[in-house]
Amino acid sequence: MRLLATLVLSVGLGAPLLSQEPPAKVTAIRAAKIFTATEKTFDNGVILVEGGKIKAVGNVEIPDGAEILDFPAAWATPGLVDLHCHIAGAGLRDINDMVHPTNPELSTRATIDPESDLLQDAVAGGVTTVNFIPGSGTNISGFGTLMHTAGGRTIDDLVIRFPGAMKVAQAWNPERMGGDLGMSRMGMWWGLRKVLDEAKAYNDAWSAYEKDRGSEKPKKRDDLEMMRGLFQGKWPVIIHTADARDVMATVRIFHDEYKIPCIVSHGEFGGYKSAPEIAKRNLPANIGPRTYDWTIMVQDGRCIGIAAKYFEAGVKRLSLNTDSPVVPEEELIVQASMSVRLGLPEDVALRAVTIEPAKAILIDHRLGSLEPGKDADIAIWTGNPLDLRNRCVLTIIGGKVVYDERKGRRVTFGGGW
Amino acid sequence: MIALAFVLAALTAQEDDTVALTHLRILTVTKGEIASGTIVLKGGKIAAIGADVKPPAGARIVEAKGLVAFPGIVHPYSRLGFPDGPTGPVGVAPQNLAVDELNPSLDVYTLAARTGVTTFVLQPTGSGVAGQAAAIKPGASTRDDLVIEKSALLRIVLPSGTPGKEALKQALDAARKAVEAEKKSPAAKPDERTAVLAKFLKGDLPAIIELNGPADLLHFWQVMEPYADFKPRLVFAGSADLYKAADALGSRKARVLLRPMVALAPFTRERINAAAELTRAGAQVALTPPSDTIDGLQATLFKVAELVKYGLPRDAALRAVTIVPAEIAGLDARVGSLEAGKDADLLLFTGDPLSPESRLHEIYINGKPVLQGE
Amino acid sequence: MIAALVLSILLSQEPPKPATPPAPPPPPAPEKKAVYTALVGGDVHTVTQGVMKGGTVLLKDDKIFRIGTSVDLPEGTTKIDVTGKRVLPGFIGAVAHGIGLSTSQGKIADALDPFSESVKLALSGGVTSIYIESGGGGGGLFGGGSAPPAPGAVIKMSYGTLDGMLLAEPSTPLLMPWMNGSPSERYDVRDNLLKARAQLEKERDFEKRRAEGKLKAGETITRAAPPLEPYVKLLRGELSARIQAGRVDELRRALDLINEFKFKAVLTDVIEGWTMADEIGRARAYVLLDVRTKEHAPKNSPKPAGSSIEQAAILRKAGVKFALIPPDSNAGTGGIAGRNLITLQLEGALAVRGGLDEQTALEAITITAAEICGVETRVGSLEEGKDADVVVLDGDPFDYRTFVEMTFVNGKLLYEKSKSPYFSHIKGRK
């Protein structure tokens, strides 16, 4: 294939492909274009990797003895980040427990399947970090895990941070049909506030105790323990929202009332009408799986690009998702392409699958862009990744090659809802 | 024949009171407006109407200053008093008569007289070639008193798809054979079924074709192509999205029956005034009451006024509930406008019929007042 | 007086019969003037005869009349300037559901709904013809699954007109039981084909002897009984059969039948075709290819298995002809862009992602798709004499940002991006 021909491995240096362990020496990756997800993009630049971290990026000198990976016609980008992923575990049956309307004691960490085929597909699509969350079957379905898509055989090898985020579903799924509390928005949101009140009080009590060990020790509560991090600003709540009314409720409850870092996720079905309010509060919006609003809940005959609409309304902290498996995880980049097609600027779209989701989930000090000191999570593409004709040929996580097209691993790429 | 004469004599004796309604504003529909005039009712008919008409001697004079006269509304596609429910499989049953389904003792036939609709064309139950519709005037409880025309038009209900088209082809084929047989031996009497179809094909019995949507219209015309040498009288009844075929309907100057509703442009809440679009394209539009319930019948002019608000010319709107449906049902010699010689079916409003502030002050059916004393 | 009244009432029951003299015969209809439309100055991708830069495509009524760099335009031609744009044949959806039909009962010809909004949506994606199945979709025409095979037809997206909407409504032989029926059902399929072959041989022999004048006196040939007719037509090459065959064992089973009886077959829901591309090529079978079909190979599989995005490229190398189809065979507006017929051309981009060359990708949504549907003499390329089904694009068909600007069906301009509410608010790139 003509595309493979452009990937030239510098055999002269006799370096094998990077082995399982992060190599002690420096690796230099040369690419025609390096999209760093910062203000700077480099033509014919170099990424230096050492000890699993990025050492330098740009038109930098390659030190002697460095292993060189040469991609003369390719683009290098940060590994892609998806904040709304359901495929890292045992499947769709496993992501909701719907007996109680709120379940802050549940989490996905233990359900991760490091050998999942779907995770391997994701890696082959250049996706290196996912927030693996429970479903939207209840108002609080539990806590998600921020994890790499590859790089080890055990769960611990993959976890970047646990908890990743608390998953809340505002409406359009968690409505309970059993006739008990939680059938209406009134019931659902009262329940949410109740739990948040309890959790806040719990955190206050424990924080006070931690300051002064002499004071009375509060009781430990499994269901509220992980929620402490919300009030401490350590991890956010990611909220499944739908129409504009639900987006506003999200913004009011979580940001205005409880002052918890939050991510407005989905935001489809006319949710864009609340975008100015999100922009005013500088909140992150995580759009997907739908890339357009057209005939459901909006009625003006137009196919409206959702991400573009949020962006036009002033939402700068924009990220995209797949809600995998609704859209297969490896098609995260396609979500970006489609968003551009429907009006989003290209650079905004590329940032929306790299640095912006990392910022939203408070992990940007480690990943999401190609900057010195950050994790060496890198994807190499045959050209501009937004062009559907291009593909990911190499994926690196923590400095290790976790996907290499030349090793005969077929890029599957498909499936879906 | 002689019995009939006695009955008629009895009737005429009752109706010898001549009534003159004076100083009325009159909307004739077919011959313009009269700012202030007189209508003379005699023998169940409009004996005279005009600005300069003087009440005849001996007439009972009803001072009607401040009132507006309008023809009684004609409803050409009604199921008043007939049950909703399954219509059965698609078939060819032109011989079926709506009068045979009529239960004249139902309250609804007297209650309906108070709604302003003064002529109903009752449609037989069925799908495909369903049968012959009958015209009635409300306000009575016996079949003879209700029914004014046993066979006003043929009802054809065309569901989308093959069964409907096949039934229609069958019917047309039988009709053509009957017409040709008739030409060869005029004395031969075909069976009733075929006779009705032949009447339809020749244009002697008009037909209402009920369609699901504009696509069915195209399929109908496709089926009719081989019969282009015949000129049946056709009226199309369908949903508001018939506007999509406005050009095709307009160029044929077709007659179209609609409920007084706006359509919505796809995926939007943008209103499309189907009646106005079709009228503009050259079609003749008749508007039926929104439903066959008493409330629905009473709401007819209100809904029609809404269409005028959204662009239907007033003139076309007024004709759409009077003379056009009357023509459709072949009853325009008797009803549908205020003209001398026509039946005395009229409505007296306290203001313009299309104004929501106007109240229906009195209804005359066959010259007899319905709301008297209220 | 009463008698007169009675008479008048009796007479009023009869509809009046106007007494008009017979009308004179109508004058002969004047010859209808031809309607010419010219698309001038664009890059014309004919598909079959290369790209003509700055060319003119002249349409006359419902046909392509002339293609060239300097074409004389008759008086009254509507000239449309398409400088900087690309002119292509309308795209063809080789399988579709839920478009242009008002009902799923009865013959498709009687269920056509040219006023359906779904037709407009397909036009906005540049799709001008589709192979529509009246069932709900799912397992292909002769596929597995519990849904009975749905009748299919090739229809045009001729919004507003019934004339010229139906391109072909083939009857299809029931080969489904061959794939997943009981042994006796499979036997019946093969038996029917054997009978059909025998009938065909009889017919050919009869025709041969007739041509040579060697018929016996009064000899006739009995035609096939109606149930056998589709099989005879299949073997005669007048019909094709769609067979659902995903994995290797299913493909083998399908190829067995195809190789024995040598008929035109279209394989659907193909997953592992790429592992036996040469065999499919030798059988001259066609494939409906969803680039994104996904099935994981069993772990530690000894040989290549599961799906591959490279399937299109691999089949191409083996000489297999295929049409590209999207994951969703409708023109719906559910919200996830890039998965259905509204973005059919993007399937080509994904096939290129998997290594296919762009020319074959383009053929796979135009001329080869037409061939699979049996309508390649009418549509699928820009050639003089073919139907005037043409699209104008604002860029490379496989660029993810390219939109359809105009769509012509049977010579009529039925979609204009700038005038339609769908995408007019999305500005072009340049």
Q: Topology, please?
A:
The complex is a heterotrimer of chains A (417), B (374) and C (430).
Chain A: H1 2-5, E1 8-9, E2 27-35, E3 41-50, E4 53-58, E5 67-78, E6 80-85, H2 117-124, E7 127-132, E8 140-148, H3 155-158, E9 159-169, H4 185-211, H5 222-225, H6 228-231, E10 237-241, H7 244-257, E11 262-266, H8 275-280, E12 285-287, E13 292-293, E14 304-305, H9 306-312, E15 318-320, H10 332-341, H11 346-351, H12 355-360, E16 378-381, E17 392-397, E18 400-404
Chain B: H1 2-14, E1 19-27, E2 33-42, E3 45-50, E4 60-63, E5 68-71, E6 73-78, E7 90-92, H2 108-111, E8 117-122, E9 127-136, H3 143-146, E10 147-158, H4 162-184, H5 192-202, E11 207-211, H6 214-224, E12 234-237, H7 246-251, E13 255-258, E14 263-264, E15 271-272, H8 274-281, E16 284-287, H9 294-298, H10 300-309, H11 314-320, H12 323-328, E17 346-349, E18 360-365, E19 368-369
Parallel strand pairs in B: 1-4, 1-5, 6-8, 7-9, 10-11, 11-12, 12-13, 13-16
Antiparallel strand pairs in B: 1-2, 2-3, 5-17, 8-9, 9-10, 14-15, 17-18, 18-19
Chain C: H1 2-13, E1 36-45, E2 51-60, E3 63-68, E4 78-81, E5 86-89, E6 91-96, H2 108-111, H3 117-124, E7 127-133, E8 152-156, E9 166-168, H4 176-180, H5 183-211, H6 229-236, E10 241-244, H7 248-261, E11 265-268, H8 277-282, E12 286-289, H9 311-317, E13 322-324, H10 344-353, H11 358-363, H12 367-372, E14 390-393, E15 404-409, E16 412-416
Parallel strand pairs in C: 1-4, 1-5, 6-7, 10-11, 11-12, 12-13
Antiparallel strand pairs in C: 1-2, 2-3, 5-14, 7-8, 8-9, 14-15, 15-16
Helix pairs in contact in C: 5-6
